[in-house]
Each structure stands twice: as structure tokens, then as C-alpha cells.
Amino acid sequence: MTPVTPEAAAPSRPATRPRNAAARLEPAAYALLRFAFGAILFTHGLPKALGTSHGSMADPMAGSIRLIDQVMGLPFAPQLAFLVMLLETVGAAALAIGLGTRWVALAFTAEMIGICVALGPAWPWIDRGIEYPVLMAALAAYMVVRGGGAYAVDRRLPWSASAASAASVP
Fold first, then answer.
1. Distance (Å, whole) CA 33 – CA 103
2. CA separation for the pair 158, 164 (Å, rounded)
3. What ranges in the chain are assigned the alpha helix state H?
4. Are 38 and 30 in contact (CB under 8 A)?
5. Residues 6 or more apart from 109 whose CB is under 8 A from it?
6. 99 three-class SS
7. Which residues contact 4 (CB under 8 A, 6 or more apart)?
8. Tally of CB atoms within 10 A around 2
9. How much is the pTM?
10. How far apart are CA 150 and CA 145, in angstroms?
11. How far apart are alpha carbons 64 and 60 in whole angstroms?
């Protein structure tokens, strides 16, 4: 007689079916979070790309160049500001749809940490504190770990690791 293990005796539930409504909504909620994150960052990059004002900044690209050069003391400030503008436009749009999510989110994590360092440890947000970039860095870091999620373009690409793993799930 073969001994029955507790796993074999217990009725099994399909591993792919979430137990409650909240669990079933999680993939869509994460897609919404990823989209909102990308859309918010896009609104910071588009004025730089178009050379238009953004809030109280008459020239956000000049502001980025000044921050990189004078506050952070980094060389090649105009070129780095151009890369920031590309990240905040093309990268933000890619993140919103879930394309290259981990790599783009990693770049945003680095950008937000750089902004936190540049602004210093000032906390009241109304006084140009760092709460906003700290939160954005934490969200971006989470996206690096989590990836694009169920509703990401990444999952639809044939060379994607998540597409291969999704195809192998029964």
C-alpha cells in the first residue's frame, strides 16, 4: 500500500484562479499604476522636448541643464539633459504600455535618486522637498522587480521571457 501524502489527499485548487475579487483585479490595478506612472513622467518630458513652459518653469530644458551642471556638478549637462528628456518622453511612453519595463524603470530609479541627491534632504514638499522623487524612485524600483505585468506589451513579444513563461502555463 502506497502512503498518501497530505498534498495528495487534499483537494487541489487550480493555481491560476485567484481566490477573491481583489486578487483577480490585481493585474489590471498594476497596469493602471504602471500607466499612470508613465503618464505623469511624460508630462515632465514633453515640455522639455517641445521647448514649452511647465508650471512655474518658463524653460524646463534650461532648468534641467542648470540642475545637472550647477547643482549636481556633472559634465556634459546639455547632453545629459537631452537624455533625461528622452527618458521622460520615449521612456515614459514605453513604461506606460509596458515595453522594456524593467530597463526603463531602472533608468527612472536612477534619475529619481539623482534628483533626491541634487535637491538634498529637504522634506516639506511645498519647499521643493524630495517626497515626490522618493516616492517615484520607490515605485520605479518596484517596477524593476515586478516587470511589466499581465497587460504589458512585453508579454506579447515573441522574444520576451515573460511571453515564453506565459505560453508554458496551461
1. 17
2. 7
3. 6-9, 21-50, 60-66, 77-86, 92-97, 101-119, 131-146, 161-168
4. no
5. 137, 140, 141, 144
6. coil
7. none
8. 5
9. 0.80
10. 14
11. 6
What's the grid cell of residue 20? 477573491
CA distance 118 to 69: 11
Residue 146, C-alpha cell as written in the block: 515586478
Residues in the chain: 170
Which of 44, 80, 79, 81 lies closest to 61, judged by CA? 81
Calculate the alpha carbon distances from 106 to 4, 67, 69, 110, 113 in Å. Answer: 47, 21, 23, 6, 11
Integer CA distances (angstroms), 90 to 42, 46, 140, 161, in order: 8, 9, 16, 22
pLDDT at 9 over 60: no
| C-alpha cell belonging to residue 108 | 527612472
Q: What are phi and psi of 54, to 5 degrees?
A: -145, 105
Q: Give residue-wise pLDDT tens across range 82-131.
A: 999 999 999 999 999 999 999 999 999 999 999 888 887 776 666 667 88
Per residue in 4-40, is it b (16+ CB within 10 Å) or e — as a string?
eeeeeeeeeeeeeeeeeeeeeeeeeebbeebeebbee
Place of cell 504600455: 97
Single-letter code of the amino acid located at 20: N
Helix (H) or strand (E) run with residue 39 in it: helix 21-50
C-alpha cell recorded at residue 11: 483537494
For residue 110, the one-letter residue type is A
